[in-house]
Amino acid sequence: MPKGGEKLAKETGQLNVKIGLDSIDFQNGISSLNREMRKVQSEFKLASAEMGKHGKELDSLKLKSDSLTKQTELQRQKVKALEEAHQKSVETKGADAKAT
Hints:
The chain is of the alpha+beta class. 71% of the residues lie in helices and 12% in strands. It has a two-stranded antiparallel ribbon. The protein is rod-shaped, with a radius of gyration of 35 Å.
């Protein structure tokens, strides 16, 4: 266990906080912790706001993707109908007919 003026250090990720056991170091340590806490809270708020934006963007991209998927399916159905009509025309009028 540390004595008198020795300091405790705790490292979390890139956060390095030292708290002294004498009153001046203790007050400075608490002030440092408070500053770091405000910094972490600000970073969290910013990250949350960014996640909110990305969440909205993700929803928007999903809607676009769903819409494009439906449009692609409709185009496939059109192509299939045109191929069937062409095939019927070939069967009834012949492959070399101008109408085909």
